[in-house]
Amino acid sequence: MNYKPILIVAGEPNSIFLEIFFKTLKIKKFKSPIILIASQNLIKLQMKKLKISMKIKILNLDKIDNYKLNNKVINLVNVKYNTKKAFEKISSKSNKYIKESFEIALKLINNKISNKLINGPVSKKYFLNNKFLGITEYLAKKSKVKNIAMLIYNDDLSVSPVTTHLPLKQVAKKIDKKLIKNKIVLINNFYKNKFKKKPSIAITGLNPHCESIDRYNNEDTKIIKPLVKYMKKSNYRISGPHSADTIFLKKNRKKYDVIIGMYHDQVLTPMKTLFEYNAINITLGLPFIRISPDHGPNEKMLGKNLSNPLSLIKSITFLDTK
Question: Where are the domains of the chain?
Fold first, then answer.
């Protein structure tokens, strides 16, 4: 059986993504052919700036099934993007380019060319324009899917926030049993299908020490604890609510495959402290496998050729299967 290609949408043009993409192809060999969806013009400008040389093979979108692809060259679906500079300030200028890139990727997936997608970072401020909390939600809308989960995956420990890129003051209003249950089911099914195992899951509380001074509105007691009890009876390997300030201690975290938190920074801060670039962001619930390296555009590092490609290497490696 041939390996299906891995589609990569480069995303925001003014980011470190193409730099780490170039480095990744030079550092590691992959069995799956990689198809990059990006601007040839932009690639050439950034190669020149970063003093990198690689051959580019332009692919005809209508004949993409006929190519015999390998990763000795950059297999490129060229998307028009007009710029004379390798890097500019992030703005709405790139919105049309990014939107067209995702549309091409989704078209290739719908045509069964691939079921593997990686995307580079985008600007939430400009591209998503407050219409979506993140690319996770953007792709869910495009795929007509309602139940999704963000899983920050590492071989030793993964984390998942129940609410994603949501302002902290709105988190408590969004927490309910149905939302948390949906995340648990998606994560459990993912581990069973991908790794043939039932994961051990810990759930944090929302409040410090899982306590609240508001006895009429204690989410930990009234929402999370009863749900954990219910899921245990339904044969899930789950425990909680746990205090978020101690669950990541070594003796505690080693008991679990996944820690689910109530909000983004509650679990992503300790995760990145522990593993730095050695983690990938997987969207669960889509009709295809979507991964993004766990980093943003990182404007401060543009053009310096100092960015670490480990997260992209891990992302491609995860998808490098038949």
Answer: 1-145+286-322, 152-275
Q: What is the pLDDT of residues 199-255, one digit of tens each?
A: 999 999 999 988 766 665 689 999 999 999 999 999 999 999 999 999 999 999 999
Sign of the torsion formed by the C-alpha atoms of 123, 129, 132 and 133: positive
Q: Look up tokens 């997608």; give the residue.
A: 117
CB 260 within 8 A of CB 267: yes
CA dist 306 and 235 (Å) reads 47
Is CATH 3.40.718.10 correct for 152-275?
A: yes
Domain 1-145+286-322 has CATH 3.40.50.150: no
Contact 75, 69 (CB under 8 A): yes
At 67 the three-state DSSP class reads: coil
pLDDT 10s digits, 107-120: 999 999 999 999 99
Query: Do the strands 280-284 and 289-293 form a parallel or antiparallel pair, or are they unpaired?
Result: antiparallel
* Max CA distance (Å), the chain: 65
